[in-house]
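User: My collaborator sent over this chain with a note saying "see what the structure looks like." That's all I know about it. Can you take a look?
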Amino acid sequence: MFLRKDQKRRRTRAEATEIIEKSLTEDPIELEKGDLPAIILAAIIVFMPFILAFGGALLLLWWLIFYVVGG
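Assistant: Without extra context I'll predict from the sequence alone. Here is the result:
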């Protein structure tokens, strides 16, 4: 993560193929009790500021066009 691009170790095609084949044979991860509400809450916490900022910008633009300029 903190290494420069030339210092990062790249996976070979054989390693990548091995990881993909291993993931196809493993059982999927099962959710525990309470995981789904936690996932939803985390998504709300992450995306809500962007939604509010975008909605606020649109509301401000609407207000400026129809009430300030349109008079």
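A starting point for your reply to your collaborator: Residues 34-71 form one domain.
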